[in-house]
Amino acid sequence: MSVNETQPKPLPSGSTIGILGGGQLGRMLSLAASRLGFKTHIFCPDPQSPAFDVTPHKTVAAYDDAAALQRFAEAVDIVTYEFENVPAATAEILSRIKPLRPGANALAISQDRLAEKAFLASKNIPVAPYRAVETNADLADAIAALGLPAVLKTTRLGYDGKGQRTLGSDADLAPAFADLSPKPLVLEGFIPFSKEISVVVARSLTGEVKAYDPAENVHRNHILHTSTVPATISPTLARQAGMIATAIVIALDYVGVLGVEFFVVPADGRETLLVNEIAPRVHNSGHWTEAVCLTDQFEQHIRAIAGWPLGDPARLADVVMENLIGDEVLALPANLDGDTQPHLYGKAEARPGRKMGHINRIGRN
Amino acid sequence: MSVNETQPKPLPSGSTIGILGGGQLGRMLSLAASRLGFKTHIFCPDPQSPAFDVTPHKTVAAYDDAAALQRFAEAVDIVTYEFENVPAATAEILSRIKPLRPGANALAISQDRLAEKAFLASKNIPVAPYRAVETNADLADAIAALGLPAVLKTTRLGYDGKGQRTLGSDADLAPAFADLSPKPLVLEGFIPFSKEISVVVARSLTGEVKAYDPAENVHRNHILHTSTVPATISPTLARQAGMIATAIVIALDYVGVLGVEFFVVPADGRETLLVNEIAPRVHNSGHWTEAVCLTDQFEQHIRAIAGWPLGDPARLADVVMENLIGDEVLALPANLDGDTQPHLYGKAEARPGRKMGHINRIGRN
C-alpha cells in the first residue's frame, strides 16, 4: 500500500492481525498486538510453534498451501510476518485479499542479497563491495576484483551464519563454491570493521518515521550474543546511522519496523558506516526496546501496520540485551537479578544454537 | 502455602498457570506470564471474556462448577485469580489439587469488609472507625458512636461504589438500610481525607517483599480515573505507606501482588494514613508500572506465585495512568500522543462505566 493513497483509516482495536510465522518474533508481535486490543491469528507450518501459546487463532499449514493462505487472509484484517523469506507467491496470494504490511517489494529486495545490495547502492547508501557469482570463473574474477579474504554467501535463505563461507586463501575457493553452489551466490569483500551496530526504524502508513538509538552488537558463533545501548560510537555516527535507516524506509515506501545492520569501519582516523543487511521485520537487536523505551519495537510495528500514529522511541535507561541460546535458558530463574528483565519464548526443547529467550539488564541513569 | 515450608522450587518456564477470571486483569496477567515463557489457562463463566483472546487454553464454566474446577486444576500447575470474590468453596476445591496463590486466607479476609478491618486493626494498622450493622438498631447505635456523615456498606461484593450509601442526615438511614439489607453491613465513619493513595506490594514464596512507589488516585463516579506517580506526599509519608503495605503482606503470609488503598488525612498540620481497603491481586492503580518500572506489577505477581525471585520495582520516569471508561476508548488511536503508552483490553462493547483500557502518559525526568 502506498502512502500516497488517500489518507488511510486506522485499523480499529478489536480487529484481527494475521501473522505469518510462529517463532519468538511472531509471539512477541502477538503479545504487543494484544496490548493494543487486537486479536491475532498465527500462520505457521510447525504445530509446536511458540506463538501458538498466546492466541486461540492459528493455522497450521505450509507457506505454499494456497487454500490455507486464502482462508487465513479471509479470517484476518491485515497480514504481517516475522521473517523475510516469505515466498513471493505467498505474498501475492495474501496481498490480493488483505493488506500485506510491510509490502511485497520489501520482501523481494530483502530476501535476495544481490537485489538488496543493488537497491541500496542505487540509493547511494554505502555497502560492502560485492560481485555476483554463478560459476567458478565468476568467483575467480570476483576474487581478482575484491581480493582475499572475502566472504562467499548464498543470495537467499542465509541467516545466523548459515549459507556462507569465509575465503582466506585460494585453496578455500573450490570447496566453498562446491559447498554453496548451484545456488546463486554473492562474493562480499572483507570489511575490516571495528564494531557492528544496528538501527531499528519504523515508518507509519502516513509516512511518519521514527528510529531507535543504535545498538552495538556482539555475535558468538554467528548468532547475536549481546546488544548494548548506547553504542560506543560518536553522536555524529549515531545520527548518520539513523539517517541512513530513515532513507531506506523512505526509499522502500515501507510500512512497519525494519532492522538495519551496519559495519563501523575505521578510515583515516574516523569511523564510517557500511550497511551489512536489512530485515523487513522486528529485529533481535531491538529486543532491548521492550525494557527501556516509551514504545517498544513490537508495539511500534503493530502501530505502523495498523495505520496508528507511531509511539515515541525515546529510551529511559541504558541497557544490555543478551540472548539466551540453548541450555543457557536453564540457568533462569535461579540467577535472575532484580534489575534484569527476562523474556522467555516458551519453546519446549532447549536445542543447541536455538534462541530460547533473552534478558535485558537495565542500568539506571 | 506457607513460606516456612521447605525452600520451594521455582516453577519452570513452560509450566501452565491457571487464572480464575477472564477480565482485563486476567488478560494482563496472562500476557505477563507469556513473557516469562509460561502457558496460561483462563477459567471464566463469560464466553466473551477478553482474556480468552490471549491464550488457547480456556474453561467456560461457573465458579461453583466443581467438576469444571477439578478438571481445570488438574490441567494447570498453579492457580491464581484476578478478583478477591472467589467463593471459599471454589478456593477449597482448587487448593486441594494445586497450589492456590495468593492463599485462601487472603481471600477470606479481603472479601469481607468486617473481617478485613478486624484483621488490620488486630495488627495495629490504622483503619477508619467502623461498626458492624445487622439491624436498624445497630445502625442507630453505630451513628451514635461515629456521627454523621458516615458510609454504610455491604460487607461483601462491593466494588466501584456499588453496595454503599453515604449517610448525610438521619433521614438517609432508613432508606439506605432498606436498600442494602438484609446483607451484613458495616458503617464506616466519615474520613475528611485530603488525598487517596495506594501502594502495590509483592511478596515472594521465600518471603522477599518489594513495594512500588505510592500512586495518588483520583476517582470519578466511584471509578478510578487517574493514578499519578509520584504522589504529592512527603517522602516520610511515602515510606510509611510502603511499610504498612509490607506489614500487611507479612502478616498475611502472603504470596503474590497486593494492592493497599489509603486515605491521607490532615491532622495537626501534618498528614497521616488510614488503610481504606486491600485487594489480594494486581490493582488498577498499579497499571502505571507497566510503562515505567523495571518490573511491572503483572510480571511481579507471576514471579511471586511461580516462586521466582522478585524483580526490581524501581521507576524510570514520572507517569500518569488514566482509565478509559466506556466510549472514551473510541477517541483512540486518533488522539494518541507519542509519549502515551496505551493498553486496550479488547472488549467488544464499550458500555457506559466499563473499563475498556488505560493510557500511561510518560513524563521524562
Automatic annotation (TrEMBL), chains A, B:
Residue positions binding ATP: 113, 153, 158-164, 188-191, 196, 219, 276-277
Keyword Cell wall biogenesis/degradation set for record: no
Reactions performed catalytically: 5-amino-1-(5-phospho-beta-D-ribosyl)imidazole + hydrogencarbonate + ATP = 5-carboxyamino-1-(5-phospho-D-ribosyl)imidazole + ADP + phosphate + 2 H(+)
Pathway: Purine metabolism; IMP biosynthesis via de novo pathway; 5-amino-1-(5-phospho-D-ribosyl)imidazole-4-carboxylate from 5-amino-1-(5-phospho-D-ribosyl)imidazole (N5-CAIR route): step 1/2
PROSITE patterns: ATP_GRASP
Pfam families, A to Z: ATP-grasp, PurK_C, RS_preATP-grasp-like
Taxonomic superkingdom: Bacteria
InterPro entries: ATP-grasp, ATP-grasp_carboxylate-amine, ATP_grasp_subdomain_1, PreATP-grasp_dom_sf, PurK, PurK_C, PurT/PurK_preATP-grasp, Rudment_hybrid_motif
Domain ATP-grasp: 117-306
GO MF annotation terms: 5-(carboxyamino)imidazole ribonucleotide synthase activity
EC number: 6.3.4.18
Annotated keywords: ATP-binding, Ligase, Nucleotide-binding, Purine biosynthesis
Uppermost EC category: ligase
Family membership noted in the UniProt record: Belongs to the PurK/PurT family.
Assembly, per entry: Homodimer.
Stated role: Catalyzes the ATP-dependent conversion of 5-aminoimidazole ribonucleotide (AIR) and HCO(3)(-) to N5-carboxyaminoimidazole ribonucleotide (N5-CAIR).
The protein, known as: N5-carboxyaminoimidazole ribonucleotide synthase
Species of provenance: Devosia albogilva
